């Protein structure tokens, strides 16, 4: 592999951007002129000038990915819709084979002959977490819709506890000559120096799943839109308020616990801060964070660690009546603690972000009417939004520093358990087609 550093303003990068600009200039005026999607502000989207068509987003795919949401501000919502518009579910075998090649190897040639190189930097990785593997695939599938992208280079830190491993992945992508980087910064602020190096080299860095490089207000945090290009994800405080509302209504009075992901990640910190503040007077949080800048219930989004955390909290607090967590499948494993300790799942309320089928089918099997689950969305498709936003940035389009993905809480019903799901650990809201999932998880 060529490890030579590609300096800012290199010929390959300038050529790629020139190609994009030329293609944008050639976009017919009719693109994006169909009836405007909700929240687009009416008329033709400004993104039509850059080859994107938010109005082409299939309403069924929007509903699948997000549920019955209210659109976010038009400058965000149009980018979200433009990304979903490219989520073509009818893939030919050649495209599936190419996607699998790119997913299975650190580097691949897309076969398009395009000048641009996409970098993908995951603090987790395909082998440590199904959610990460699916999000990686969604980014690859999105990249394959752009003939301008001729190569994809991917890295995975595999939840390594050493922040330098994560930072060196970014530096590796810089040296590999990528034109933009999409990823998730699990180590938060600790990734800041490497992200600044990428931006200084003229390489836009865009994170998804509300992956702030340090939550705004934290010491050392970078500002999206200023220090790095953009972050894609939910309004974390609104998500935290939603979690609190579910617990306040479902529990009323009693004890609740919170779980989070990797220490230092901004997703957990963002919603936990606001959940804590919004819990009702009758709610007792059994594991409050040490301070407003720290998270509680760190599990690294690893199922066995979630089990250990819940087992430990239940041992001393057997009357816990509610949980808030981002990760449905992790809580599915953690519920084993209830069985081990002979604690019934009665009068239990759970507020979640993702929607892995394992927990939902287990809920159906338990058939306990006083046990209720609420969830938002898996969010895997947000990596697609990162790719589309990056391609817009490379053409000079105005992309907000925070591309807000709207959310809504939905109560789990029997219909949310799909026994025919290709892999029960894949979020039901993922936009990766079943044919691709079958290839990914054939083993």
Structure description:
The chain is an alpha/beta fold and 443 residues long. The chain has two domains: 11-234 and 380-408, Response regulator (Rossmann fold, 3-Layer(aba) Sandwich), CATH 3.40.50; 236-375, Response regulator (Rossmann fold). 38% of the residues lie in helices and 13% in strands. The chain is built from 15 helices and 13 strands. The protein has a seven-stranded mixed beta sheet, with helices on both faces. A six-stranded mixed beta sheet has the order 8-7-9-10-11-13, with helices on both faces. The two termini are 29 Å apart.
Brief sketch in words of this structure:
With 443 residues, this protein is α/β, with parallel strands linked by helices. It has helices spanning 11-25, 59-66, 74-85, 93-104, 130-143, 163-175, 192-200, 236-251, 266-278, 303-316, 328-334, 336-340, 357-366, 382-394, 434-440, and strands at residues 107-109, 116-122, 149-156, 180-184, 205-207, 230-233, 254-258, 283-285, 320-325, 348-352, 371-375, 402-404, 410-411.
